[in-house]
Amino acid sequence: EYQHILASSLEEFERLSRMIDGLLFLARADNAKEAIQRVGFDARKEIDAVRDFYEALAAEQQVEVTCEGNAWLAGDPMLFRRAVSNLLANALRHTPAKGTVRISLGSFADQTVELRVRDTGRGIAPAHLPRIFDRFYRADVSRSRSEGGTGLGLAIARRLVELQGGEIRPVNLPQRGAEFTIAFPSV
């Protein structure tokens, strides 16, 4: 019984630690005095690293994660990786077993690079779309496969994208999932 209580307490401490880390990041990002150091980097390479990190979780949940396309970006590779990680974690949380998460990347003639993360979950109710990037907002706890989200992941992803001069847009695909599109200026 003590082991169960300790394990439960440890899980709660880890959740609180992640929440505090997220809040501290947002506070630092909101008060950033220095511009982001932009370097050219291979966005596909960073996406593949994130995908590799989540490979075991995706397999455990019986969710297939695919990636297609290539592009180079001017930005901060670590901030980009964290934004992709938050979007992929969110997609995995909301995708049922036997579902898929598709990541696509492409460059366009207007000098933008688009990254799309699309899941095959139930989608996001239109009433929730205006608030999903608000801190601590959780659209529907029952939509997720597991508890544990703090409602900060999408707020952090948006801030990471904005710090690099990009824009993020959600799209609801009723009963077919959700899609998040990030548009960045290319190199």
How would you describe this protein?
With 187 residues, the chain is an alpha+beta fold. It is built from four helices and seven strands. The strands form two sheets. It has a five-stranded mixed β-sheet with strand order 2-4-5-7-6, with helices on one face. A two-stranded antiparallel sheet has the order 1-3. It is globular. Residues 142-146 have low confidence and may be disordered.
The rounded distance between the terminal residues' Cα atoms is 56 Å
Structural class: alpha+beta
Helical content, roughly?
A: 40-55%
How many β strands by DSSP? 7
**Uncertain regions spanning at least 5 consecutive residues:** 142-146
Strand content: 15-25%
Secondary structure tally, helices = 4
Which features does this protein show?
187 residues; alpha+beta; 5-stranded mixed sheet; two-stranded antiparallel ribbon; 40% helix
